[in-house]
Specification:
The complex is a heterodimer. Helix content of chain A is 31%, strand content 16%. By secondary structure, chain A is an alpha/beta fold. Chain A is globular, with a radius of gyration of 22 Å. The termini of chain A are far apart. The mean pLDDT of chain A is 97. Chain B is of the alpha/beta class. Chain B contains eight helices and seven strands. In chain B, strands 4-3-2-1-5-6-7 form a seven-stranded mixed sheet. Classes of the chains: A alpha/beta, B alpha/beta. At the A-B interface, helix 2, helix 3, helix 5, helix 10 and helix 11 of A face helix 4, helix 7 and helix 8 of B.
Chain lengths: 471, 200
């Protein structure tokens, strides 16, 4: 074996290689952890049944309910019949095959990408897959984590492996110190605006640099979570003391001699000096502003201090057309200051920004302040445990006193598969990850923002930074 | 899976880039627990507009979609591929596909072929000049033929082989049982197991 310096992504690939593909065939990689939810799994279980196959490693598989689940009155049966049937299918399938499940009402239920790390199942050096594109979240631990389709869910259930074509590698170097009011969400929105929604296609992104090192695990998860919005197959951050401290003592974290061995193995999970990335991108954290989107894809973002761009300013014809179409859909005029955009709803939630630190950051800003009239604010914790933690800290009271709706955990308004949707034409500042047409409800308009911007916006009624509150 | 070689069908021009999976099939249509019946969800919001391309007479029976760059971005939902197939599409061509969509297409026997931006424009122009024109899609030779015009497309060799042979991915992998078992035998003991459940 050669001693060629390797990137972190290449090491993870090497460590999971079961069969090297020949003559253009993909490599076969072992999968350490398979997360399941109700939307992308029923057809996979059906496929197993039809083929008479079993689950190879139910001890590496875990399910939860998140996309369809209501965030109010969760003690009642799910009102929507098709949602109820889909959740029931997951319960039936996991019971039939002996897969661990955390159902609505269980204290470990929540958004699948919040639950895995919380239980200490997500850790460095793993391959993690889930039938959900935001599986990239788990890359924050130095795991190779990928969203997969339903056929691949079936494949992993049956074989605990996946055939994969090797990826290219891209370094995202973020150097400097974030200013107050600027967070991980702003970094990733700026990255996507820079490289575009297709810029990461075929790549595994590795986020590096002093600004990344300074982030908590939750901030790192926010960044890796949105790697898919740049088109990347996965996002990674090398594990360090912050990672180990987060993991230590969690229910499924290694213990005793296993912990020591794990630490020894994890210490190798860095990109070697001299390793070459296929591409490098640089972001200056010192000068970064809060970032918000103006359009209908996550790459259509600007600094909150800027204005809605003029489609004519795009040299590429397809980008120009896309910008015009986005402005029409968003009902925005070029040149309007982002801070003059009035919103109707503020959504604090999703696998991107509904962890305890996100709730704390927003609560700190709204505490003792008055909500803008006509603003609806909905707070949906990422998991039942995040909700419990927030309540133990009194955050729920701060949100309720402010006039926000304090909900139970789930994907909720991020994609509106449950009743939490925006009305046609309604405009939201949302801490979620996608501002696609109709994503949060048919005809709904979404501006992606950080939890701090969401909180300031709820107070002022227009897209705002926390600094605007001091004026 | 059915073997695919070549076929002829009406080509529809979808002149948009960044068509994400929420446009291909909005989330409210993802609740079915079967693999079929998703045709109503295909481009559901856009199809409510009269001027949408698939609402135009010649394109209602289209089986080939010629679309702009970055098709299939966003969610991993394989329902996007099922919806296209259930509607009747057998092939989609774009200058760039999102990775997960590309993978899902290959699993489901939907040809996702990469053509240049210039060829995309050329095909759109030819279709506009002759709405409802049929094209021949030839997978083995990786060509789209429209009258005298021939446009070649890229598809990775392995996927092409699987599609033309109609092979089941899981069946191929299970031939490596010994290698998988050998890998499992040397897996690190610190790696997590979901069972027995802890933290409950």
């Amino acid at each position: 074996m050669s001693n060629k310096p390797l990137t972190l992504a290449e090491k993870l690939w090497r460590d999971h290689l079961v069969v090297k593909g020949e003559n253009g065939a993909p490599d076969l990689l072992y999968i350490d952890l398979h997360l399941i939810h109700e939307v992308t799994s029923p057809q996979a279980f059906d496929g197993l049944r039809l083929a008479g196959r079993g689950i190879r490693r139910k001890d590496l598989t875990i399910a939860t309910e998140d996309h369809n689940t209501p965030t109010a009155d969760i003690h009642l049966p799910i009102a929507d019949a098709t949602s109820r049937a889909q959740v029931q299918a997951l319960r039936d399938n996991t019971a039939e095959y002996g897969v661990r499940i955390h159902s609505l009402g269980d204290k470990n239920q929540g958004i699948v990408h919040v639950v895995g790390p919380q239980l200490g199942l997500t850790m460095p050096g793993l391959t993690v897959v889930c039938g959900d594109s935001h599986t990239s979240t788990h890359g924050a631990f130095g795991a190779l984590a990928m969203g997969i389709g339903t056929s691949e869910v079936e494949h992993v259930l049956a074989t605990q492996t996946l055939p994969l074509q090797p990826f290219k590698t891209m370094a995202i170097n973020v150097e400097g110190t974030l200013r107050p009011g600027v967070s991980a969400k702003d970094i990733i929105l700026a990255v996507i605006a820079k490289i575009s929604t297709g810029g990461g296609q075929g790549y595994v992104l590795e986020y590096r640099g002093s600004a990344i090192r300074a982030l908590s695990m939750e901030g790192r998860m926010t960044i890796c979570n949105m790697s898919i919005e740049a088109g990347a197959r996965a996002g990674l951050i090398a594990p360090d003391q912050t990672t180990f401290d987060y993991l230590k003592g969690r229910p499924h974290a290694p213990e005793g001699a296993d912990w020591d061995q794990a630490l020894a193995d994890w210490s190798d999970l860095v990109t070697d000096d001299g390793a070459v990335f296929d591409k490098e991108v640089f972001i200056d954290a010192d000068t970064l502003d809060p970032f918000v989107t103006w359009g209908t894809n996550p790459g259509q973002g600007v600094s909150l201090m800027d204005s809605v761009p003029d489609p004519e300013s795009f040299s590429d014809p397809s980008q120009r057309a896309a910008a015009q179409k986005a402005l029409d859909y968003m009902d925005l005029k070029a040149g309007t200051k982002m801070k003059d955009i009035q919103v109707d709803t503020v959504f604090l939630g999703s696998c991107t920004n509904a962890r305890i630190e996100d709730l704390r950051a927003a609560a700190e800003i709204i505490e003792g302040k008055t909500k803008a009239p006509n603003i609806r604010m909905m707070v949906v914790p990422g998991s039942a445990r995040v909700r419990l933690q927030a309540e133990a800290e009194g955050l729920d009271k701060i949100f309720k006193d402010f006039g926000a709706d304090w909900r139970f955990a789930g994907c909720s308004m991020c994609l509106g598969m449950n009743p939490d949707q925006l009305a046609p034409g309604e405009r939201a500042a949302s801490t979620s990850n996608r501002n696609f047409e109709g994503r949060q409800g048919k005809g709904a308009r979404t501006h992606l923002v950080s939890p701090m911007v969401a909180a300031a916006t709820a107070i002022r009624g227009t897209l705002s930074a926390p600094a605007d509150l001091e004026q | 899976m059915e073997k695919i070689s070549n076929f002829t069908g009406i080509a529809a021009p979808l002149k948009l880039s960044n068509v994400d999976t929420d446009q291909i099939i909005p989330a409210v249509f993802l609740k079915r627990i079967t693999k079929t019946g998703f045709e109503d969800g295909l481009f559901a919001n856009w199809r409510q507009k009269e001027d949408f391309v698939l609402n135009q007479e010649p394109y209602q029976n289209a089986s080939v979609l010629i679309t702009g760059s970055d098709f299939g971005t966003g969610s991993s939902r394989e329902h996007a591929v099922w919806a296209l197939k259930d509607y009747g599409f057998k092939a989609v061509f774009s200058s760039k596909f999102a990775d997960i969509f590309l993978g899902n297409s290959g699993k489901q026997g939907l040809i996702a072929g990469v053509i240049s931006e210039a060829d995309t424009e050329k095909l759109w122009k030819l279709i506009d000049e002759n709405p409802g024109v049929e094209v021949e899609v030839d997978l083995p030779s990786q060509e789209i033929r429209l009258g005298a015009e021939v446009v070649s497309f890229d598809i990775d060799e392995y996927t092409k082989w699987r599609l033309t042979e109609g092979l089941d991915d899981i069946g191929i992998t299970l031939q490596n049982e010994a290698a998988i078992a050998a890998y499992e035998a040397k897996r690190e003991s610190w790696k997590p197991k979901t069972l027995p459940a802890k933290g409950v």
